Amino acid sequence: MSDRRDQHVILSGCSGGGKTTLLAELARRGHATVPEPGRRIVAEEMACGGTALPWTDLAAFARRALALATADRAALEPRKGWVFFDRGVIDAAVALSHATGQPLATLLQGQPLFHPRVFLVPPWREIFEADAERRHDMEEGLREYHRLKAAYRRLGYDPLVLPRTSTAMRADLVLDRLGPPPV
């Protein structure tokens, strides 16, 4: 029997690198998925005129993202198979640490572990697009990517940078590297 660490897999990396598209492909293939907290928070804050936005108050945004990601994970029903997270707890904690200087280990204290293999989408200028909910430029995306990659390594995870290729090939690679789903 597996524990949550064995079946909860993080997709992280550069903003605009294809995480959400990859998550949709994994869902299409029948896997459980959890959407990115940040996009949901930005949509809510913009709808109500809130200020917990990464370009207005990064610390407030990251606190909300950490709380939402924690709640997302706690609300999951026990199930067989892989559960893929578009960002989540660790990415939110990295953002909060960056915004406030709080130690990452302190922010993650008490959080359950994830699968040791983390899949990172690299910077990909050809598909990166700023929009109403992603206002930062590619250069900030690159800085974020390097913070995340370093943080995952420091935390003892094994980040695998996905190639810049089709979504289907990325999904195939993820599933191949994970092997059979836990039971």
UniProtKB/TrEMBL annotation:
Pfam families reported in the protein's UniProt record: AAA_28 (PF13521)
Taxonomic superkingdom: Bacteria
InterPro entries: NadR/Ttd14_AAA_dom (IPR038727), P-loop_NTPase (IPR027417)
Residue ranges annotated for the NadR/Ttd14 AAA domain, each copy included: 9-169
Cross-referenced Gene3D superfamilies: P-loop containing nucleotide triphosphate hydrolases (3.40.50.300)
Protein name: ATPase
The species this protein was found in: Sulfitobacter alexandrii
